[in-house]
Amino acid sequence: MKITISQVSKYVDQEVTIGGWLANKRSSGKIAFLQLRDGSGYIQGVVVKEDVGEEIFARAKSITQESSLYVTGIVQTDERSPFGYELQVKSVEVIHESVDYPITPKSHGTEFLMDNRHLWLRSKRQHAVMKIRNEIIRATYEFFNNEGFVKVDPPILTGSAPEGTSELFATKYFDEDAFLSQSGQLYMEATAMALGKVFSFGPTFRAEKSKTRRHLIEFWMIEPEMAFYQHEDSLKVQEEYVSYIVQSVLQNCKLELTTLGRDVEKLEQIKAPFPRITYDDALKFLHENGFEDIQWGDDFGAPHETAIAESYALPVFITHYPTSLKPFYMQPDPERDEVVLCADLIAPEGYGEIIGGSERIHDFDLLEQRIEEHKLSKDAYNWYLDLRKYGSVPHSGFGLGLERTVAWISGVEHVRETIPFPRLLNRLYP
Length: 430
Fold this sequence. Notes:
This is Asparagine--tRNA ligase. The chain is α+β, with helices and mostly antiparallel strands and 430 residues long.
């Protein structure tokens, strides 16, 4: 019977065939140990010369790294294995022999690994990160579907920019100017007025010339938008959502977290509600902790966010940023016009902002004024103003960056490991 490695628990003491690749091997006299992978998981195949005969044993010992093969054997429990099972091999059939596989078990430099990203993805560590990424995506759909949200797909090519055009990739759309989307938010606001609660999940692009471990040129965003939700309502959704995906990973990716050496005790604490601190209080905290140079109206950088996050075991909301720091569409605080009803959610352990969100301006005149103040084309935003002309309501939304969230939950240092084929400032290959 042909099965995958992930299915072996159902076939203990039965003979099965697994198609996979040889990740590594070692031999000890008359026994060979084959580390097999098939995409669904890893398992050790034990080849005993006395049981399989000279020919099969010699074949097993000669298989090269990343050769593809069919392995037939008996599934057995193995308490010494993190996976809990091993395969007592009876026969081996080589499908294709891999010659001089470039990524050997020795240490390699980052640039070499990035040049060979198409092969590096096969490694145990990268496999674990991708499985955690997949679990976060699965849990995202589950959470929002359970909460009554409708999945909507905003366009990737747009004629306007929600946060200005300075960090956008421009292109020609026949005889018009167009941009690769940096956010689907404006379109999600339109669909929220039609469907109530919506979310999108798709690629976004930022032409930001940054080389930090937190930045990618192309990344994926989850962007919910909710009609009749005010700022506080949105914060509750955010903390419940983040708690949900963390707990889902803990439940369904135990082996992957172990492979990565992740401290799961820190993740086990991630449950709503999350602490909140205003921009003003955050600024005061920074002044008291060695950051005297930052002034009111300055944005927080990575060192500032890290210092604030280190004071909490949970993700922390920083709310009520100065209006001057935020995009044109954010609702001002009715009691204090110089700040807006917004929040950034900062992950613990130095992973920085993973969510940005706000209540949106729902007053036509104020939004029109903001568009003029930001010197944006009113013609390009006429459709967006229409949302405030025909049945406007208070509404809120947020965007979660998938790759930063994967980095935090999996515990990897750089976001380049959290997406299959990262696009960085100087990298468009492979």
